[in-house]
Amino acid sequence: MSTDTAREHLGGGSARHLLAISDLHRDDIEDLLELTETFVEVGRRPIPKVPALRGRTVVSLFFEDSTRTRLSFETAAKRLSADTMSFAVSSSSVNKGESVRDTIETIEAMGIDAVVVRHRSSGVPAQIAGWTNASVVNAGDGWHQHPTQALLDAYTARTHLGSLEGRHVAIVGDIKHSRVARSNIEMFTALGAEVTLVAPPTLLPSSTNAWQVNVSNDLDAVLPTLDICYVLRMQQERMTEALVPSLREYTACFGLTSERADRLRAGALIMHPGPMNRGVEIAGEVADRPNAVIIEQVANGVAVRMAVLFMLLGSGRHLSAAPSPLDASSPGDSPTADGPAGDVDVSMEDAR
Ligand code: MLT
Fold first, then answer.
1. Where residue 352 falls among pLDDT bands split at 50, 70, 90?
2. Is the CB of 235 under 6 A from ligand 1?
3. What is the distance between the alpha carbons of residues 19 and 15, in angstroms, rounded to a whole number?
4. Other CB atoms closer than 10 Å to residue 74's CB: what's the count?
5. How many domains does the chain have?
6. Is 297's C-beta closer than 6 angstroms to any atom of ligand 1?
7. pLDDT digits (tens, 9 = 90+) for 34-56
8. Per-residue pLDDT tens for 209-247?
9. Do residues 59 and 141 both lie within one domain?
10. Does residue 270 share a domain with residue 174?
């Protein structure tokens, strides 16, 4: 990413897009988590709605299946009083061969302020950011990033554990195909936690050298040392070959079974981004234990996404100068209008 492009992202000073956790400075993360607290409070009100983004339009552009993330962003936008538009690829002109660029330009012509993008190819939200004057929020791109998931995970973990400084987090399972793992490695290490990746060698990326992490193939040895056991879904839709002998064998070695969950320390959290494969990576009974905060993660997702949308579209582009969203009765500044950056063709092929 060029310096100029980086400057357009959160953490770069103008906060125009949220594409990756690595775009955020530690201060930005802290500010977003603090703003999230405000919106959690809004969510507890009898009418959980504020006028902060009245007159703004937020579009969700999902080229890949999603339940919780799409609904969560749409709920967040509505609670901020933004107008929302939802694009589902199954009923769109993409099925008639329209390119991503033409799709985004068509939607932009209707007048939009932010576009929330999910795509099966890594890098598509960044490309879209070069084609539109709207703010772009990455809602998950290929194996690459899912930044709002990492923000909601950090927020949820901190409500239980306080500071994450020095805490031990294991991210367990299909690291190789996981954008959640990549975002959370960056998030948890930025917040001072020690991160251990636990997976069979076939479900790890070819190199982990770029990350400040430990790697283990022995979940049983790691479990008693953890503050957070973060379990990933087996992402079979992204696997092009058999990477484990069988799901039964995977569960036997890496599943968070009842016996394994019993070996976690008192107070250790069990987290999962959802959707879960109960009985594969996590036992159904374990997912329902009091120290499993999976439903809280979903609930906090709405407030985190309100914080992100408010920061990008409210007058809070400079985080420290952000006014209270609860007082905002008119929209803030318009996003900066920069021209399109290059004529890059985006196909549905993975950019990995
Ligand atoms: C994702 O979109 O990456 C999900 O939140 C996690 C998953 O699909 O396993």
1. very low
2. yes
3. 10
4. 20
5. 2
6. no
7. 999 999 999 999 999 999 999 99
8. 999 999 999 999 999 999 999 999 987 777 666 788 888
9. yes
10. yes
- End position of a domain, from candidates 248, 263, 297: 297
255 ligand 1 Cβ < 6 A: no
If phi > 0 it is left, if psi is from -120 to 50 it is alpha, else beta; for residue 173 that is left
| CB burial string 52-69: b at 16+ within 10 A, e below | bbeebbbbbbbbbebeeb
- Quick check: 104 and 87 in contact, CB under 8 A? no
Tens-digit pLDDT profile for residues 64-122: 888 899 999 999 999 999 999 998 777 677 777 788 999 999 999 999 999 999 999 99
Rounded distance from Cα 213 to ligand 1 centre (Å): 21
CATH number of residue 266's parent domain: 3.40.50.1370
Distance of alpha carbon 287 from alpha carbon 310, whole angstroms: 32
In this structure, what DSSP letter does residue 22 have? G
Spatial contact of 151 and 32, defined as CB atoms under 8 Å apart: yes
Question: Is residue 160 located within the same domain as residue 221?
Answer: yes
Q: Looking at ligand 1, which atom is closest to the CA of residue 139?
A: 2
